């Protein structure tokens, strides 16, 4: 008797819910093409910076590329097309006469990069929004000393990197992954 009432209860329950038939739940798979490749990311950017500071809160104008090699070619540095910021050695980086510093998303020179391009190690810049707050590595160019700030317009905590031309260094602890503005010095 117990088994009969359990079956009866289940039958009444399923009738109230009006469960769909198995055929309606499992449809034949629809043929479709593979999804397209994602568009390239243009996170290898260059900015022309000058000793004249931008207005407070402003970010530098950017020219961005899909590859680091394209960004370096834009400022006149020839690198292999497969070059990454990490693979470019000191000699190639040192030949990039007009770059002040290259900022990287990762301490080993991988990920997004921003090339600060100019001729004078005087002045400062807010970091572009696509890389601001995520910089962990820097390759020094014409400027051997860079002061990194946790706030925009040279505010907040700060730390220094001092390096030879072409030297790749980690950003100091207090501003690692926290840079919002930088100041150059010769």
Give a verbal description of the structure.
It contains four helices and ten strands. It is an alpha+beta fold and 186 residues long. A hairpin with a 3-residue loop joins strand 7 (145-151) and strand 8. The longest helix is centred in the first third of the chain and has 16 residues, at 2-17.
Q: Got a strand count?
A: 10
Low-confidence stretches: 1-30, 35-40
Q: Bin the strand percentage.
A: 25-35%
Helix content: 10-25%
How are helices and strands ordered from N to C?
HHEEHHEEEEEEEE
- Strand arrangement, largest sheet? 2-1-4-3-6-9
Provide a concise account of the structure shown:
With 186 residues, the protein is an alpha+beta fold.
Features of the shown structure:
alpha+beta, six-stranded mixed sheet, four-stranded antiparallel sheet, 10 strands, 26% strand, globular, disordered N terminus
């Amino acid at each position: 008797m117990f088994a009969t009432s359990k079956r009866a209860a289940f039958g009444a329950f399923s009738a109230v819910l009006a469960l769909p038939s198995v055929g309606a739940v499992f449809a034949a798979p629809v043929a479709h093409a593979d999804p397209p490749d994602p568009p390239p990311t243009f996170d290898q950017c260059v900015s022309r910076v000058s000793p004249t500071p931008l207005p407070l809160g402003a970010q530098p104008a950017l020219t961005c590329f899909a590859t680091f090699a394209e960004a370096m070619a834009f400022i006149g540095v020839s690198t292999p097309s497969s070059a990454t910021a990490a693979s470019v050695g000191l000699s190639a980086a040192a030949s990039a006469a007009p770059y002040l510093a290259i900022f990287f998303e990762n301490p080993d020179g991988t990920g997004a990069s921003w090339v600060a391009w100019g001729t004078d190690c005087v002045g400062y810049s807010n970091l572009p929004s696509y890389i601001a707050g995520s910089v962990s590595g820097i390759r020094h160019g014409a400027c051997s000393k860079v002061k990194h700030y946790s706030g925009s317009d040279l505010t907040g905590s700060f730390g220094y990197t001092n390096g030879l031309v072409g030297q790749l260094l980690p950003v100091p602890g207090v501003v690692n992954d926290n840079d919002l503005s930088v100041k150059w010095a010769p």
